[in-house]
Specification:
Blueprint: E1 3-8, E2 12-17, E3 20-25, E4 31-36, E5 41-49, E6 54-63, E7 70-75, E8 82-89, E9 94-100, E10 134-135
Parallel strand pairs: 6-10
Antiparallel strand pairs: 1-2, 3-4, 4-5, 5-6, 7-8, 8-9
Length: about 140
């Protein structure tokens, strides 16, 4: 079990990780969301699946309103402009979160390695492109 902590805007701290309590993959295999038993945050990943490889890259996090935790979530089957995630929060609120993206056809069986800078894997700071982002929507 690994926990990560992040400070956003120096105003609040988010802890993510631990035992996985739920996962959902959209129908095209391009977005993966993961919830954790001891965290109120859902992690969002971009994925590329080929016959030879699986590539998973972090995109950001989804959090609910104050004191809400995700109860369950699923992707809509019929959404052609990306992925549409529906989340049921502990307060009873339903959230529909569209993730707009363009599909990139995978033409290779081999995924090129990441940039040559991997010092963050040995305790350094991750590159800016991996800076976590938190997505939230106002309650209706």
């Amino acid at each position: 079990m690994v926990f990560c902590g992040f400070y956003f805007d120096f105003s609040f701290h988010i802890s993510v990780g631990g035992i996985v309590s739920g996962m959902a993959w959209n129908k095209t295999g391009e977005r993966l969301v993961v919830s954790f038993a001891e965290s109120a945050v859902i992690a969002v990943f971009s994925t590329i699946v080929t016959p030879a490889n699986l590539s998973i890259s972090p995109i950001g996090f989804i959090r609910g309103e104050l004191d809400e935790t995700p109860c369950c979530f699923a992707y809509a089957d019929q959404f052609n402009r990306g992925a549409l995630l529906t989340i049921a929060w502990s307060s009873g609120r339903l959230q529909h979160l569209p993730m707009f993206f363009t599909r990139v056809p995978v033409t290779q069986d081999v995924i090129e390695p990441l940039s040559s800078s991997t010092s963050y894997l040995q305790g350094g700071s991750p590159p800016d492109e991996f800076a976590p982002r938190v997505y939230s929507s106002p309650a209706f």
